[in-house]
Structures are given as structure tokens and as C-alpha cells.
Amino acid sequence: TSQNLSRAQLAASTGLTKATVSTLVDVLMDAGLVVERDPERGLIGRPGSPLGLNPQGPAGLGVEINVDYVSACVIDLTGAVRYKTTLAGDNRLVAPEVVLQKAGDAARGVWNQAAGSGLVVSGLGVGVPGLVDFDGVLHRAPNLRDWEGIGAAEHLCKLLGRPLRSLYCDNEANLAALGELWFGGNKDLQDFVFVSGEIGVGAGIVIGGELFRGVRGLGGELGHVTVEPLGLSCSCGSKGCLESVAGQEALF
Asked: Could you tell me the pTM of the whole model?
């Protein structure tokens, strides 16, 4: 669908029968996931109607909670960011409940904008600057106080008080690495390390086209690798971490 193929072209490229493809497309269209556009003009013969992802289909709500800001956006099925807002502010010494409330306000604002244009938000993804397990629970956030054991996606869903079909939470660098893998424009790039350099330094590792999260889901914490054993104290309690020499505050 990303190439705007017709039903006949999809059948030819997948090896499925035209009848099977047509049935599947009808199901996707009924679910609001796919739309059928008008044929291009000037083509020879009887052109098929190109298919595409429905920009007015189910939308996703993305929220990032970081050290010095919270951000929220609504993205449609085509990958386009339809609405976005960012609220700056130092969150390091602020209670988690207060930061989550601010993130909820940002999320509610873009959700209301999306609803006004006819978009239905169906899922929530949350990025946080810390170690997140496979259940979406934040185990440690060196730059945020008292966030251990918090499931940010579940908390935000309760604050928003609206139905959502799916909830997901992960380390912000992991999610950025997936964004680079899926939308970075280089299909041949299947093995790389994405480094996120803000106040904290994080990394997302992609191997063989898949996110590598480690045995417990805590892989890629590059910022707290010791690079200067006798260096400055770090927020994690150690000394000489990469973050203490290459983070934004260390550089500027």
C-alpha cells in the first residue's frame, strides 16, 4: 500500500489470487485502514485504482517524557504527524505524578485537536529516559527522581480517561532507533546503534532489522558506561560516565 499498488498489482506481487486480494482489501477498507483512490490519468488501458493507507483511519498518540520537557503528538496511518505540542520544564526534582499530569495535559490537547478533525486515537506509545522492562515498567531513570516501578503508559491512560486499544512504553532511544529503522529512508540499514544525546545519553541497538533489548529489556544504556574512572560524579551514582562528559549540560 505504501507504493499505491492496485488490487491486481498486489495479487501479482504477492502470488495470491485476485479474488483473495480483493476480499482482504475489502476487509481492510471496512476497518478504515485502507482507501482506494481514483486511477491516475493518462494511463493506457483500464487502470486499476491505487490503494493506500487511510490518513483518516485509526491514529496513534505518542508521548515523550524527558528530563527537561514533555511532548505529545498524534500520528496517522501514513506516518504523518498531524498534531504536536511540547511543554518545556525541568522535571528532575518534580514528583512523577506532577510530570505525568503535565504529560497528560499535552496529550489531551493534541487528542482533542485530532478528534476535531475526525481522527480516532486508538493506541498510546510512551517514551521515557530510563530502563524499561518488557512489561513497560520503568526500573531506573537516573535523571528523574522516584520513577522506579512506574508504568507510564498505564498511568497516562488512566489520567486521560479515554478508551485505548493498545498501550506501549519503552526507552526513548529504543523508540527513536525504531523510528530510524522504519522511516529513516534507508531500507538497507539493518544493523546500527542509534545514539540519543540530550541531557542524558541513550542508545537503541538494531541488529538484523530488529530492536535488541537485552535479556531483561534493559540493553543499550550507553550513557552510563564509564569512560573516565576518576571523572565527575554522575546522576546514576557512578563516576566518569559518558553522560557526564558528553551530555548537553557537560558540553554547554
From this structure: 0.85
List alpha helices for 92-204, DSSP H.
Answer: 96-116, 152-160, 172-183
Count of beta carbons in the 10 Å neighbourhood of residue 100: 22
Instruction: Please give the grid coordinates belonging to residue 125.
Output: 506509545
Output the pLDDT for position 45. Answer: 52
Q: Which amino acid would we find at residue 194?
A: F
Distance CA 176, CA 153 (A): 17
In terms of C-beta density within 10 A (0-12 exposed, 13-18 middle, 19 or more buried), how is residue 202 classed?
buried
Task: Output the CA torsion sign for 186, 188, 190, 193.
Answer: negative
Name the 3-class secondary structure at 236. Answer: coil
* Contact indicator for 187, 81 with CB cutoff of 8 Å: no
Is the distance from CB of 118 to CB of 212 less than 8 angstroms?
A: no
Residues in the chain: 252
- pLDDT under 50 in the chain at which residues? 1-2
